[in-house]
Amino acid sequence: MKTRLAKRWIYYLTVSVIIVALVLLVLPSLQRAVERAKEEMRPNKNQVVEGEQEPAAEEAGQPQEATSFEKIAETDRLELLFRSSDSAITVIDKTNGYRWESSVPLQDVETDGNELWTASSQSIFHMTYTDPHLPALETQETNFALEQPKMTTTSLENGISVRYELPRLKISFDMSFQLKGNALEVTVPGQSIQEGKDNWLMAIAPLPFFGAASDHDKGYAVYPDGPGALSYFKTNHPTYLNPYRASVYGADTITFNYFGREQNAMLPIFGLKVSDNAFMGIVTQGEYDSNILFSPSGYLINLNRVSSELVYRREYEAVKKDGNLTKKPEKDLIREDHTIRYVFFSGNEADYSYMASAYRDYLVSEQGVVPKVKKDEAVPFGLDLLMGIKKDQILIDHFIQNTTFSEAQEIMEDLSKRGVQSISANLLGWTGEGYLSYPSGYKPSRKLGGISELTKLSEYAKEKNYQLFLQDNYVEAWKGNDGFSSRKDVVFGANHFVVTDRYSELFYLNAGKQNAQFQKEVLNPLRKLDITGINFDGIGYQLYYDYNEDFPLTRGGTAKQWTEMMGKSIEQFGGAASIGGNGYSLKNSSRLFGIPMEDSGFFFTDETIPFFQMALHGVIPYSGDPQNLFYDPQLQYLKMVEYGYMPYYQLTKNYSEDLKDTFYADLFSSAYSNWVDQAVNYYKEMNDKLKPVWSQTMKEHRKLQHDVYEVVYEDGTRVIVNYTPREVRIDNHLVPDKNFIVVPKGG
């Protein structure tokens, strides 16, 4: 017994000694971590403003008294005020005296005890940075209130520039604020950014709380999720785990998961309406490397706020020495200028309809978008024709002829006889490789009739004044297809590995190399065709960096190469089209395909709005999903009417059973003979009722009551859409259940 007790005491003593030793070993690290945390959270008030002295030593680290605002700029519409103690700004709308504040008045902040976010709501910027020496990427967020940077100001014409120096992080940059007409422009020059070796800049969000609204304000936030989305301010809301954060023009990185993907932010815009006042933000420079942020009340703090985040580095997957993957920050800083323009509205104009109109004006007057819709022209019938596609077989792939070129002409002739006044046709799978087999080979398939029959079809379309596009994809490439090198002609990631799927079957093509050979390989062989142009698949809905050593490209550089290819199509044929509506594709698009009707369905989103459609209607014609693939034909048809789409079908001469076991089995019902009667009926209704407004811009869009919406066109014509299962009366007009009416101007 004594021996057993002695052994037990020896065991306890040994364990105690080990625990004490471990504590002694860990204690210095804990102390250093605590000291670092204290240092990061400690104010370091060291502003230096022109004409002012640096604070005395005994005042360092102590919050300064807030100075008063001073007016530094003025236009006919706006006044800009600046506060030297923290560089806060206020924009006064002189039409009604409303004040747009960059920092939220403290008495208005409902933080539920969150002092950190109360401080952040006073910050002129938020910032994300990282320590590049860490074995894996760890980003940290900070803001003006935490860092209390040194400041130096410089007067500008109708504004001011502020240089922020963050001593703790050894990061500095400039930010300017200038009034221009009815807008405020905020710019961060790329060359102004400096950083140390231990802290790298990842992103800056200027004016993160500009105009932030409380739960008791009436209004909503606008963000570019798909066609557009609204989130109303609410007094009762949950606690949200994540905000809306979208990279402009789509995800930063290439993904091979096509299911459940969020809708693109096709336009670099955001907006906020507070009572009878509103602003819209437009990223006019650096939009290729920007995010749009909307944080609803309930995410970290009870304030609704919307802003842009400027991206200066991205993360990528690097291979460690042990062969495992880890996240790392890109080495090089993106040194481009970023500018965000805030346009202000008041009174009846303070809503998303006028925001969309203002963005349309920006596209036309500053981005060079020329209206492609002619006045009083008929509504076009959108017709996709699937021509040919390959079916995998053991020895030789079988080419399926779904629609020959001569059959395509027969279909268009039949539609014309049935009363279709205008056709916008698009041929899929017209090459020898067939649909979805890329690179496609670029030559018209002989099994479909070859170049001679395609020439006849194009001559017929030109004679009838119909559009005829040839769709192809110069973005994707499949292993085993000729026409590209999987080592030289493809996209490389920041880790300098080829970007491909898990099976190394699908690749993405370098846009610069595609552009270099596009004229010779594609356009020259087709020069005798009387087509409208090439329809570019892929370029309107995805965008990426390419680290190909032969032809490295930024996201903006990739977009430039693609738009140059579209320009070459315009030079040769007179037009071009794109699938997807990312903003860079608009200038060169004669028609847009695949424009979404719905947003991504975030929990905080209250309504889908046709912001994109309102900006483009009457300027560029667009189509959405084919009507023969609708899951709810009547509801989606009404949505087409409300959002101003053209009627649109994707059809084949033969039956869709032929597509079984091909890459395009989704086209489950496509035979022309099965759909022509319904298609012509829908077309005639839309053309008869909506032809007067087809070439007009949308002036207003509003919700009249639950599931009843109204669109007002530029001449005052109203289209009222009733989604309810009952008849409704609007201004003495009866709107049948699940139907629409057109009310002429003055009606």
Describe the fold and architecture.
Strands 7-8-9-10-21-16-15-12-13-32 form a ten-stranded antiparallel sheet, covered by helices on one side. Strands 31-30-29-26-25-22-33 form a seven-stranded parallel sheet. Strand 3 and strand 4 form a beta hairpin. The N and C termini lie far apart (106 Å). The chain is globular. By secondary structure, it is an alpha+beta fold. Helix 5 runs parallel beside helix 6 and helix 7 packs parallel to helix 8. The protein has eleven helices and 39 strands.
What structural category arises from helix and sheet content? alpha+beta
Count, helices: 11
Q: Which spans have pLDDT < 50 for at least 5 consecutive residues?
A: 1-7, 22-63
Q: Note the overall shape.
A: globular
What amount of the residues lies in strands? Answer: 25-35%
Biggest sheet: strands, sense, closure?
A: 10 strands, antiparallel
CA radius of gyration: 30 Å
Q: Give the strand line-up of the largest sheet.
A: 7-8-9-10-21-16-15-12-13-32
Distance between the termini: 106 Å
**What's the mean pLDDT score?**
90
Portion of residues in helices?
Answer: 10-25%
Secondary structure tally: strands: 39
Protein name: DUF5696 domain-containing protein
Keywords: Membrane, Transmembrane, Transmembrane helix
InterPro entries: DUF5696 (IPR043751)
Pfam families: DUF5696 (PF18952)
In short:
The chain is α+β, with helices and mostly antiparallel strands and 747 residues long. It is built from 11 helices and 39 strands. Helix 5 runs parallel beside helix 6 and helix 7 runs parallel beside helix 8.
